[in-house]
Specification:
10 helices, single chain, mainly beta, nine-stranded mixed beta sheet, disordered N terminus
Length: 862
């Protein structure tokens, strides 16, 4: 199994870009050297089947109930996951029955179970088929007794060609036949044992580590003859060559079925992609499009840790940029259409997919994987659906690293087009191969959309900076595909000597505040530091939280004040004023972005999730150019609203309503009710406490009402006014719970040794509430439990704690691993408090809880 192993400163100003975007579709994204303009065509006149969403699966993507959080799971509409069997020893977490509840309550589909993950080693210990059958009995009977049995696909063998039957890939006929016959005999034995234990069992296989046409042909012949065909066909695609070869594998496999009179099995490529691909939107669009275009399922490979959806999440509820890519993918509706990329079946080239939804009156195209200027050509646009004029919206999604938090995709152009002979050409320029782009087409029945405001931004590679006593390293290339992704395939490491420094020459168009995003890696074991200077002055320490390893990119953002023109931004180990920084990090690149005085993100209602009664109208395209969604009682629209930090934001809804009131719910709880607007356009706003990452905002009309939504706006930078902090060391400690010293903790102290018996508790006994109601509690914690080195994975573990309020029934909270005992992450929850003084108690009667630094308590409504 898979437990193994640019642009450098050129930028357009926001004003120029906005103008250019309306004329030629220029994009405010970093770019590398461009080749001649290429063409990607989507033929809306040729549909290819219902959108499957099959490519979004994940191997060990879930580690525990609550990791990842529900707000990250629900929007993605996952179709498959693969997890270990109940009690499996291969990894310490990811038990299929422990994650099934969170997966299914968030709309998940099938759960694949690799039975051989009962064994602790890789390659699996070969203790004989008799021993394995006892493992099969244990797994199948445990799952059969659960409420999830009908959702499970049992996979009897995992990469048989890499474990007990290695001769399956041999070019020597005798060696191959010996291995084949042994495997087929064992397949019969295990298949029949599963069916004896659970006659209704659904089975997948043979699950080879790579595509092997000869073996698959023999396997199909044998299993058909013996009535042992798998219900699902599975194999793995695990190297860059798969991006070129998969279509051929798929076509050949279907021909093998046809030749044997076998009905088409659903295909699950239940391990795909390499380390260099995960977290990179431009890479993942290549993999996802090849699976969607063949209507196959797939699960991203588990190269590193369980619980982060294979490199798509940052913290429990915090997304990175590929999470947003998968959110785009989940938002494809209707039918897929025929697409023609510039170079089909070619590794690391621009690829994509497209859909047409005649009910929503939307067409979507998602592309990525190339830095070359690209014309997206949409042919055969149906005038019966779109009318005589269309609005085209373009969004960009740039790489944020594996652990760099990512805001929602940036809308970079809106433009009206009049199709010529049913066609429109949308030029995309300034592309970055690591980025993905979405082009959406909706009717323009009247009006002019507001031009998007795109802040000035530029990117600078560390390897192109002036480097003192440090080393440039190349990684994440096609030839080194299981190294980690790096911007420009290079980074700067070994920044460890007293004189080590990386100095970037930058230039900005105007005086002001800029957000400096530093892409880095830190496996020092604690947070690390570097000294930041601008033009050699005003030294300050930059603190870098730990990352999974040196190359597992994250970001920190520091505001800097710059005058117009050229500057030198330096990151160094030491400074004569501040002294020497602690720890060590690698540097990949920096991004400079003009700071917004009042940040605001607009979410289009037409692109959000809807349920129940919903109709789409584009007679007046409104501010965003994407029309409106009309809801009646029983219908709803859910927006995935991103917050950069915990704090208060103004959440505004542009809408009209009639016949009754409209409810606004935050993360499942109604927090505001808006009265009828009498059919007139209006805006209602509520000050809400949002937690860092994704917050689900649901709009739904109450009984008798009709609500017509245009958008949702989130404004602000996360105010903490009205938030109360309670330090753990000032709370009541019982049993073995003890105050500990840690310079990285708030106030230099935390509380540890909570739990493991019911006597060891931490109680915040003076939590004040001005009024009864719903309050957000944000727990600041550290946890670095690990279960050994674990083959090719890092076996991080979560901890749990029970939170009870005023002595009531406790709620179990799951705290994801924070990579070191000195890195403090946050976990939010919502509780009901009474007016006056309240008591919040953290405990765990059966295992250790995490170390607690402090909690923050804030009314949900500000």
């Amino acid at each position: 199994m898979s437990t193994r192993t640019r642009r450098t400163g050129r930028a357009l100003t926001g004003a120029l870009l906005a103008t250019a975007a309306l004329v030629v579709g220029s994009l405010a994204v970093p770019s590398t050297a461009s080749a001649a303009t290429q063409t990607f065509t989507a033929d809306l006149g040729t549909t290819t089947g219902d959108v499957l969403h099959g490519a979004n699966g994940s191997l060990y993507g879930l580690s525990d109930d609550g990791v990842p959080g529900d707000n990250l799971l629900a929007p993605l509409k996952l179709t498959t996951v693969s997890q270990k069997p109940p009690g499996g020893a291969q990894h310490p977490n990811g038990d299929i029955l422990k994650v099934a509840a969170s997966y299914k309550r968030n709309g998940g589909g099938k759960l694949f179970c690799n039975i051989q993950d009962m064994y602790s080693d890789w390659p699996y210990q070969n203790l004989g088929i008799a021993d394995y059958l006892t493992q099969v009995d244990t797994v199948v009977n445990a799952i059969k007794a659960s409420s999830y049995a009908s959702d499970v696909v049992f996979v009897p063998f995992n990469e048989p060609d890499g474990i007990w039957y290695s001769g399956l890939n041999s070019s020597d006929t005798s060696t191959y036949q010996t291995a084949r016959d042994k495997f087929l005999a064992d397949w019969t034995t295990v298949y029949n044992r599963i069916k004896a234990d659970y006659p209704a069992a659904v089975i997948g296989g043979p699950n080879t580590a790579s595509y092997n046409s000869t073996f698959l042909g023999d396997f199909l012949t044998y299993t058909k003859a013996n009535s042992e065909l798998p219900d699902w066909m599975t194999w793995h695609e695990l190297n860059p060559g798969s991006l070129a070869d998969y279509q051929g594998h798929y076509t050949t496999y279907r021909a093998l079925e046809t030749a044997r009179g076998i009905s088409a099995r659903p295909i699950n490529i239940d391990e795909y992609a390499d380390r260099r691909d995960l977290s990179v939107p431009g890479q993942m669009v290549q993999w996802a499009s090849m699976l969607e275009n063949t209507k196959s399922y797939g699960e991203q490979a588990y190269w590193d840790i369980a619980g982060n959806l294979d490199g798509n999440t940052v913290h429990t509820n915090v997304p990175n940029s590929t999470w947003w890519f998968w959110r785009w993918y989940a938002g494809l509706t209707g039918k897929t259409v025929k697409v023609t990329p510039p170079s089909a079946n070619t590794t690391d080239t621009l690829q994509g997919m497209a859909s047409l939804d005649t009910t929503r009156k939307q067409a979507q195209v998602i592309v990525g994987g190339s830095a070359s200027d690209t014309n997206v050509v949409l042919n055969n646009i149906p005038s019966a659906t779109f009318g005589s004029k269309v609005e085209v919206t373009v969004q960009a999604l740039n790489w944020s690293g594996y652990e760099g938090a990512s805001a929602a995709p940036v809308t970079i152009s809106r433009a009206a087009y009049t199709p010529s002979s049913g066609s429109v050409t949308v030029p995309l320029t300034g592309l970055n191969a690591m980025s993905a782009y979405r082009v959406t087409v909706t009717p323009n029945g009247g009006g002019t959309a507001t031009a998007p405001t795109v802040p000035w931004s530029a990117s600078y590679e560390a390897e192109n900076a002036t480097i003192t006593d440090a080393t440039v390293v190349t990684q994440g290339t096609v030839s080194n595909y299981n190294a980690y992704a790096t911007s420009g395939t290079k980074d700067v490491g070994y920044i460890s000597a007293a004189d080590s420094k990386v100095a970037f020459s930058v230039s900005v168009p105007s005086a002001g505040t800029y957000n400096l995003a530093i892409f880095y890696g830190n496996q020092h074991g604690t947070p690390s530091q570097q000294v930041l200077t601008v033009d050699g002055a005003n030294p300050q320490f930059v603190n870098y939280p730990s990352t999974l390893n040196w190359q597992y990119r994250s970001t920190v953002t520091v505001p800097v004040t710059l005058s117009a023109g050229s500057h030198t931004i330096a990151l160094a180990v030491s400074n004569s004023t501040l002294g020497t920084a602690s720890g060590e990090v690698t540097l990949d690149k920096i991004d400079l972005t003009a700071a917004q005085s009042t940040p605001q993100t607009v979410y289009d209602a037409a692109f959000a999730d809807t349920s129940g009664s919903a109709t789409y109208a584009y007679g007046s395209i409104g501010e965003t150019g994407t029309g409106t969604v009309a809801l009646t009682s029983g219908g709803s629209t859910i927006f995935d609203a991103y917050a950069a930090t915990d704090g208060y934001y103004t959440v505004s809804t542009d809408y009209t309503s009639a016949g009754g009131s409209t409810a606004l719910a935050l993360n499942g709880t109604t927090v505001a009710t808006y009265g009828s607007s009498g059919g007139s356009a209006t805006t209602s706003s509520t000050k809400l406490y949002l937690t860092a990452g994704i917050n689900r905002v649901k709009i739904s009309p109450n009984s008798g009402a009709t609500t017509v939504l245009s958008d949702l706006k989130v404004t602000g930078a996360g105010s903490t006014t009205g938030v109360t902090t309670y330090q753990a060391e000032n709370a009541t400690l019982a049993g073995a719970a003890v105050t500990q010293t840690d310079s990285w903790a708030s106030g230099g102290k935390n509380v540890g040794y909570i739990g493991n018996t019911s006597a060891n508790t931490l109680t915040f006994g003076s939590v004040s509430a001005a009024a009864a109601g719903r309050y957000t509690v944000v727990v600041h914690y550290a946890n670095n439990d690990r279960a050994g080195t674990g083959n090719y994975n890092t076996n991080v573990e979560s901890r749990t704690a029970d939170l009870s309020v005023n002595g009531g029934t406790a709620t179990t909270l799951t705290f994801r691993n924070s990579y070191s005992w000195s890195d403090y992450w946050t976990l939010p929850t919502t509780v009901t408090l009474t007016a006056g003084t309240n008591t919040l108690k953290l405990s765990n009667s059966s295992a250790w809880a995490p170390n607690i630094d402090y909690i923050e308590v804030a009314p949900v409504i500000g």
